[in-house]
Amino acid sequence: MWQNKLKEIIYMLENSNVNEIEIKFWGRKYRVSKGASLAAAPIVAPVVPPEPMSAQQEVSAPQQSEPVESEVNGEDLLSPMPGTFYGSPTPDDPPFVSIGDSVKKGQTLCIIEAMKIMNEIEAEFDGTITDVKVGNGDPVEYNQTLFIIDPA
């Protein structure tokens, strides 16, 4: 059956302005090109991306990290667990803390819901909230920055 598909590919190549076609199907890779002889050679080895692609990826990586955030002084308060971030006890209540609020050690800053259990996250030291890095209802990961607190 794959021979019929290969014949179709050769036919398409002969009747087009394309000089080469490379196709992968059923775990095999076939390259057919116009030239002195038409050949189809199955290659079973995994395909390695060409060098220009990796160079392009290297160039695009710094562009992703280019957006400069404003410098915020303070220490990061990290999430102790993955879950869902809630800034207030209920959707109708005001948030536990906002930017500019002073906090005391042990004060509840937010709730992280993990496996239907509501875990209160408390301040680890006295200070002032300088930035809130997560929005209400957003998923958070382990060790993700939740708040930046400037120590008092």
The major pleated sheet works out as: 4 strands, antiparallel
SS strand fraction: 25-35%
Strand order within the widest sheet? 3-10-8-5
Q: Which series of helices and strands comes N to C? A: HEEHEEEEEEEE
What level of helicity do the residues show?
10-25%
Give the averaged pLDDT, no decimals. 77
Structural class: alpha+beta
Identify low-pLDDT runs: 36-48, 64-69
Number of strands: 10
Q: At the fourth CATH level, what is the homologous superfamily of the largest domain?
A: RNA polymerase II/Efflux pump adaptor protein, barrel-sandwich hybrid domain
What's the CATH topology label of the largest domain? OB fold (Dihydrolipoamide Acetyltransferase, E2P)
The CATH top-level class label of the largest domain: Mainly Beta
Total DSSP helices = 2
Write up what this structure looks like.
It is built from two helices and ten strands. It is α+β, with helices and mostly antiparallel strands and 152 residues long. The protein has a four-stranded antiparallel beta sheet, with no helix packed on it. Strands 7-6-4-9 form a four-stranded antiparallel beta sheet, with no helix packed on it. The protein has a two-stranded antiparallel sheet with strand order 1-2.
Give a short overview.
By secondary structure, the protein is of the alpha+beta class. It is 18% helix and 33% strand. The chain has 2 helices and 10 strands.
